[in-house]
């Protein structure tokens, strides 16, 4: 994405879909995350949810560290993002398990017997939203982890060899 000091090494384990390097892919996903966090910040600004605004600002700053890690070739900058995203993944997984095991079972049985499927549909939709969010967060975490692994193995450790095939992109 940026002009790194060391060109990207083309090896199958560092390529995504055989055409994009892991560093570029991680930067692309982070740019999308920053854009979405900015939109969320503007929306929370309009309804004045200060706690959510603070979360959006923190997320934008932490995501910007991933772009700085790519630009400055410092793998330690990836760590804060990976830790925070890992915590969010665990929270989403626990929320999904609680929703599926307790809430959905209780409300679906009650609503199908008494009131109708409104509560059941709401909890199923919430479970679907958490599942999609978990998948997107997991893909982003994996891409950033792969970019960090590449940075540690090839650039930061000094294992970069000039006779290796270099990426054109």
From TrEMBL:
It comes from the Eukaryota. Keywords: Membrane, Transmembrane, Transmembrane helix. The chain crosses the membrane at residues 25-44, 50-68, 80-104, 124-144. This is Uncharacterized protein.
